Amino acid sequence: MDTKNQKSAPDNTTPVRALVLPGGGGRGAYQVGVAKALLEHGVFFDYAFGTSIGGLNAAMIAQGDIGKLEELWCSMRAKDIYHLPSPNHIGQMVLGHHLGILDTHPMEELIRREVSLHKLKESHTKFGVCTTDLCSLQTSFITTDDIISSSELVDVLMATCALPMAFPPRQLHGAGLWVDGGLVRNTPMHAALEHGADEIYMVLLHPQQINVCPANMFEVVARCLDIVLDASARKEIQSAELYNRLIAEGNVESRGRKTISIKVFQPHRQVGTTLLEIDPNRSRQFINQGYAEAMEQLLDYRKSESTINQVQTN
Questions:
Q1: pLDDT at 193 over 50
Q2: How distant is the alpha carbon of residue 104 from its chain centre?
Q3: CA-to-CA dists, residue 105 to 112, 145, 288, angstroms
Q4: Helix H or strand E encompassing 182
Q5: Is 165 within 8 Å of 86 (Cβ atoms)?
Q6: Strand 126-133 to 139-143 pairing
Q7: pTM higher than 0.70, yes or no?
């Protein structure tokens, strides 16, 4: 199903909705299943914000290509995103000419082929991503409005996906060394709040519980990154919940503001892959898992809202 996001402007009774997609590498297929379920339920978005792989997913969803995004995940392999370093590449790293272990030219080609600045500019859904500069330590949030060319769009998406050490950083406007903003702010929830969202739909990529110990050094490194990304995401959720509590308590600084509905979707069970593992069969499983779990959660939300409405009516 492709949703072109060409709907009429919302009236005053229509909530402003934001889809927020943090990073998580090969687990990103789960977000596609959740987004598919939301769109089928008629939940359309005014904003699609992401970080790292969540940024790529957000771009495709914002431009109305959820069906194409699902096809990509069900055919992509790791080699379609990155190549292992060649002897020449290793030599360039030693000389300081490359600042990433892996060659990400395949991902750049995929972005140039599949992501359209024209579609993003025409879409009702505004797109945005987070990225961090290793030089200035500045974290920036960049939206469709800030991007003026297709080459700049590619740079921004490559930057937000540049996992430090693994993927090379990217210059923006010829300056800085911009990388995955997830290490600082894995979910651009703050941006959704600043843009006036009434409802925020966040899709985390870490399971609710993890009870599997790392078995080798690679898994130890991957788990450490998981901890950083998960902690960043949960900090943003806690900040949003604090924002709602201050409004509910009538805090002076919050007067005139409205509470935000925050719906968090995440895997109910262990997701058996790491940041850099991408396999079509596994991705298809993640999409199906995300879709099924989101459908179940949406049903629970609807039942809860119906009960609240009945109580208020009585």
A1: yes
A2: 19
A3: 11, 26, 29
A4: helix 182-185
A5: no
A6: antiparallel
A7: yes
